[in-house]
Design brief:
Elements lengths: L2 H9 L3 H12 L4 H7 L1 H4 L4 H30 L5 H9 L3 H8 L9 H7 L3 H9 L6 H6 L11 H18 L1 H14 L1 E6 L12 E5 L5 H12 L3 E6 L2 H12 L5 H50 L9 E5 L6 E6 L5 E7 L8 H15 L3 E5 L4 H15 L4 E5 L4 H5 L2 H6 L5 H14 L1 H5 L18 H19 L1 E2 L5 H4 L7 H14 L16 H7 L3 E2 L17 H10 L15 H8 L1 H8 L3 H12 L29 E10 L2 E5 L6 E4 L20 E10 L4 E5 L4 H5 L1
Parallel strand pairs: 4-7, 7-8, 9-10, 13-15
Antiparallel strand pairs: 1-2, 1-3, 4-5, 5-6, 11-12, 11-14, 12-13, 14-15
Amino acid sequence: MDFIQTLAAEFSVSAEHVGNIIKLIDEGNTIPFIARYRKEQTGSMDDQVLRELDERLGYLRGLEKRKEEVTSSIESQEAMTPEISAALAAATTLAAVEDIYRPYKPKRKTRASIAKEKGLSPLAELLLAQEGKTPAREAAAAYINEEKGVASAEDALAGALDIIAEQISDDAKLRALLRAFYLRTAQISSKAAKEQESVYEQYYDFSEPAAKIPQHRILALDRGEREGFLKVSISVDSEEAVRLLCFNVVKCNNEYGELVGNAIGDAYSRLIHPSLERELRSTLTEKAAEGAIKVFSENLRHLLLQPPIKGKVALGLDPGYRMGCKVAVVDATGKVLTTDVIYPVPPFNRIDQAKATVKKLIKTYGVEIIAIGNGTASKETELFAADVLREIGGSVQYMVVSESGASVYSASKLAAAEFPEYDVNVRSAISIARRLQDPLAELVKIDPKAVGVGQYQHDMPAAKLDEALSGVVEYCVNTVGVDLNTASASLLSHVAGVNATIAKNIVAKREADGEFKSRTELKKVAKLGPKAFEQCAGFLRVPGAKNKLDTTAVHPESYNAAKQVLELCGYTTADIGTDALLNLEKKAKSIGLTSLAAQVGVGVPTLIDILAELLRPGRDMRDELPQPLLRSDIMEMKDLKPGMELTGTVRNVIDFGAFVDIGVHQDGLVHISQITNRYIKHPSEVLKVGDIVKVWVLSVDVAKHRIGLTMKQPKEAAAN
């Protein structure tokens, strides 16, 4: 297979760029490095498309390998024909290859294989040809052999029909025909497996066309079946399916044709339908999983790229009842200043004492923001915090943050190594405070599956989910860039070219020898060789470095080009980060970007990136995003009334809508039909995690803790 031409056609890009990408990947370059520093060779293809192309390349290579294995197996059976060889060459999916291989694949003992051992293959061929003149029973009598277990003509006919049934079931063209029929017409249905109340009650008598069923329903049916609440099945018009087979197999309207028709009916009900039912269920689940992983990945990307609240002292509250509310104060860099435990909620209700403690901490350490975990006792803790802020006045604000995964992190070896002096519970409060200061730096310490922004993530194929989420984390970390002198080993391990061992070695060198003064010092880190340096150097920043280019995302390989750009425009590296460079872009354009790029020996895309970095060294792209919504007061669910206008933060985007935090502890659901007046296939077309949105209350069910919201402005609100 010509991978280059195939991928070029599929991705609508030039064959030259695809060839370059394959070469770069095969040479061991990471996707972030290729996307950022090899734009001329890739046509400036972005990170996500590069990952998709890499994944597709892996599939095509696996397909080619499987074709070779199948070819070898069929040839070893001396069964290869020009037709089979051509069919294998033309196959574009693994399913098509397996269909071709099916008749030659070693099988366990079947009714057909037993019949073949009895010598009934010639009779099966005679019947299938449908050209015999002798009555079928007479023709079958010639195969009676009591030693082989063929006691009568009826036994011989039955065995021959078993062979025909399996042959029809294994026919690649017939399977492809029926597969298309199933995809087009099948219904997926479910019934209650047991009469018991459950979250799956809406599926106790359910049916929907398989071609139209939404992906989240597939995942719900799968889980309900797995948990023993549902029986799920696939159905089609079986008479029409058999008719399709007969049309393509039965040649004559005679006794032989009738017998073949009987074999077709048996093949369909006993072999083909169960097989295609499993296959279609598997296909639906696989597509639904791919969709869910895509949604999860997109949500995770937006969650990790939430704007940090920089330069503020934060107080973290990890709510709890019996064990109290854990408190941690961290400085603007995330360093722990102090910890405590307060008991402002039942069963202790030491409210006055807790208020005094929090007020003292705010005053002593200059706390500017409070982060409250959204777990157990969160609502009561939020009411308590809002009350404290009302009493002290001033500008201190709070935000409820997702504490998903905080308990997993606090009990991990990583947390124990980072905070050996603190109790497991206190570590959660530290993590919650830091999540508000820098979500990316803190959340990378946690398994992405535990951060709470997916749907059915625990039902996904583990390897595919891990690969996708790891790619998202890697993208986010490298897009933002990492401070070499403050980053944890967890954060460093996601930098392109840096594995967990190298990350630990970087931290160890920093602790032993003091802060890094330049990027070149990375070369002294144990196990960080030339290839790793090439991959990671541009993503690691050294604020305050003597060589100001070390503070930018300019790769060391382009330092000379960057210096030449400055010189040709009348500047020096000393001007980086100052107002002196305000006219740099204007001067570069006056020379001409193409001309300037040629003079310094880089491509225009790289030149544009260099100019951007020289103008804003060490820039954090998250600073350009809308800031998180901080609050100083709280409402309760009982205060909500239909039509009320509120501002909230999107916490999760799923197939059927989005959950929005409106400051009442319980997130409200904006159904997909309530997001916009225009038609959308998926909520992610309009919303992303972290968006600040205006909503109106549609319904409130206090008993069931449900809030219905709309983003469509009500007519009465518009009139006012």
